[in-house]
Design goal:
- There is one protein chain.
- This protein has 176 residues and is of the alpha+beta class.
- It contains 3 helices and 10 strands, in the order αββββαβββαβββ.
- The N and C termini lie far apart (51 Å).
- It comes from Vibrio caribbeanicus.
Length: 176
């Protein structure tokens, strides 16, 4: 029994790490995200907390203005490594981490509509729970998402659908 439990815990931990890595590899940095940039052994080149504004630009030591919007953390890391390599450092060890995600918004027939901090793995039903749950007048079959950065209008979703940072969840009112 203990071996089975240990295998299950190990498998879950491995799956969580793999899915977090996959998320990090595809996640695009957006306005409202908070980043941490660490350069091993170089405190003056490390930034503990960096808020990405609507312009998406930030000032980085020795490299000047860098643009982060719509890049993955890995793409930004490679840009910093390339800029620091040679003139400043021989082999810079850089890590770019998202330490805070832009908010998601839950509007319509929920008890506490508003913005909520995104967390990886968030689904529509969990977001609705964050907003206090459905009101008595909510049309549970009329739940929509307007995705961040998308030119398309809202699309109907299931409660089990994944939510991404910046998404707007809309719950319509029922007629009865």
């Amino acid at each position: 029994m203990n071996k089975i439990l240990a295998i299950l815990v190990f498998t879950f931990a491995l799956f969580s790490e793999v899915s977090a890595k996959a998320f990090e590899d595809t996640y695009k940095i957006g306005a409202g995200d908070k980043l941490q940039i660490s350069v091993y052994g170089e405190d003056d080149l490390s930034i503990d907390e960096l808020y990405i504004s609507n312009g998406g630009r930030f000032e980085y030591p020795y490299l000047g203005q860098l643009h982060a919007l719509n890049k993955t953390p890995e793409q930004l890391r490679k840009e910093i490594v390339k800029g620091l390599k040679g003139d400043y450092l021989i082999d810079p060890k850089v890590r770019v981490s998202v330490i805070g995600f832009r908010s998601i918004y839950v509007n319509g027939e929920v008890k506490k509509p508003g913005g909520y901090e995104y967390q990886p793995g968030l689904t529509v039903d969990k977001a609705i729970a964050l907003a206090g749950g459905f009101t008595d007048r909510a049309a549970r079959s009329k739940v929509y998402i307007a995705q961040s950065g998308s030119e398309e209008s809202k699309s109907k979703v299931k409660l089990s659908n994944k939510v991404m940072p910046g998404d707007i969840i809309i719950i319509e009112q029922s007629f009865f």
